Amino acid sequence: MTRYILTGAPGAGKTALLRLLERQGHAVVEEAATDVIALEQALGRDQPWTDPAFIDLIVALQRQRQIAAQGACFFDRSPACTWALAEFLGFEPSPGLEAEMTRIKAEHTYERRVFFIENLGFVTPTAARRISYEDALRFEQVHIETYRRLGYDLVCIPPGELEARADQVLENTPFQ
């Protein structure tokens, strides 16, 4: 089963790219962290990312979505992104995150080629995305270092027109 990861800093355009790939007929899997944040905020926890348990909530939803995914698809982030997030937030990787990383490595869950969606030069704040552009740049570097350390090969997708970015992704897959 072919599972490609789209990763990058907050606000880099991953979700828009995912939407376009979906419109073109490709199966996609939504980012878990944004949905965890939305639910936690609806439950009255305004900044759930300040609690180390936040990482395990993301991991659980990522695993649920990954297991439910059928056939070849594109994932908006992966547990490796969650590892990078834990590092960025200053949290030790939880036993749940470590176990998930061990599982996906042993099962070869994701393709080793990962699409790194480069930042657009700005960040638009949302209820879930409260990161400054400067912090997003630091987080981008943590992602790069984490994925490389974990043995993934990054295919950099530079800023540009959305359709051109989608074409660059598809040129590096058998889906062209």
TrEMBL record:
Q: Which domain of life is it from?
A: Bacteria
Q: Which InterPro entries match?
A: NadR/Ttd14_AAA_dom, P-loop_NTPase
UniProt cross-references to Pfam families, sorted A to Z? AAA_28
What is the protein name given in its UniProt record?
Answer: AAA family ATPase
Where the record annotates domain NadR/Ttd14 AAA, the positions are 3-165
**Gene3D superfamilies membership:** P-loop containing nucleotide triphosphate hydrolases
